[in-house]
Amino acid sequence: LLPFFDDLSIDEVAYRSHLRHVAATKGLSAITTNAHASEVASCTHEEQVRVLDITLDEVGDRLPIVNGIYADGSLEAARLAKMAASTGASALLVFPPSILSLGAQSRPEIAAEHFRVIADATDLPIILFQYPLASGQGYPLDTLLRICDTVPTVCAIKDWCNNVQQHERHIQVLQSLSRPVHVLTTHSAWLMSSLVLGCKGLLSGSGSVIADLQLALFQAIGADRLDVARALNHRIRATAEVFYADPFVDMHNRMKTALVILGRIPCAAVRPPLVKLNTGEVDRIRQSMDMAGIH
User: Fold this and answer.
1) How does the average pLDDT of the chain come out, rounded?
2) Using CA atoms, how far apart are residues 122 and 202, in angstroms rounded to an integer?
3) DSSP SS3 for 270
4) For the chain, which has fewer Cβ within 10 Å, the N-terminal or C-terminal residue?
């Protein structure tokens, strides 16, 4: 998450403190920045460069940094990828261009070309962000396989297909390829169910608030301790039911508010078109933190 002042400029001091808090969670594999949780859609190119600089400076000596590539044009995506590589990022999280929603699912070569252009710009490992097919920006399995076959730097997907059967199929097929492509879940609203299916990891914006609980759940499932996992999942669900309530667009807005309630950042300001939450929703978030035992 990226804290702002009330005037909507970046609060670099609060961001550094937030990074240190999340990075102190022992057992994390990496931290992602310039992605949904960072409100990347509202950040300029120069701000994205600055955010990555701060992230690397503050925690880059402890954890690899994944940089989001959020762009509608492939050339701009390649420019961001070059910037991330030259600055010191360890991997890229590539968002689908919004133009895909205009019917590109029937033209798999469009998606493959987008990833080829990015991969030609840098040899950094790529995590493909898989959206729900209903959004028009998700990749059908045949398209995923084509991308993985033609772009060898694609090493994982952040799976938000939002369909249990499709998610399980991704896990079965992609992780069984001769060059396995790992499935990292971002189904944070049903995280335990997702992890039980065999995901190799999770990449979730709510890790900005509950990284310790998510990590403990992942480890419990890996150790086949379902009793422990169920108890952890009970706590995580208390947060998921408010973070991922309708309207979904407010999820990171709610997470920022949770961090303010917990005293981890001073201000929950979000950039337009997002708007601040009403008092009733803030109260529900406070109650969820209490129910989850997060202080």
Assistant:
1) 97
2) 24
3) coil
4) C
Residue 277's pLDDT is what? 97
CA 13 – CA 225 distance, rounded (Å): 39
**What's the rounded Cα separation, in Å, for the pair 131 and 140?**
10
Tokens 């993985």 label which residue? 148
Angle at which helix 226-243 crosses helix 207-222, to 10 degrees, equals 160
Render pLDDT for 217-236 as a digit per residue (tens, 0 to 9).
Answer: 999 999 999 999 999 999 99
State what percent of residues in the chain have pLDDT above 90. Answer: 100
Report pLDDT for 169: 98
Q: What is the dihedral of CA 256, 221, 162, 292, to 10 degrees?
A: -30
Q: For 163-198, what is each residue's pLDDT tens digit? A: 999 999 999 999 999 999 999 999 999 999 999 999
List, as one string, the DSSP characters of 117-146. HHHHH--S-EEEEEPPGGGT-SPPHHHHHH
Give the amino acid at 68: G
Measure Cα distances from 172 to 68, 177, 196, 263 in Å: 26, 9, 13, 41
Helix (H) or strand (E) holding 237: helix 226-243
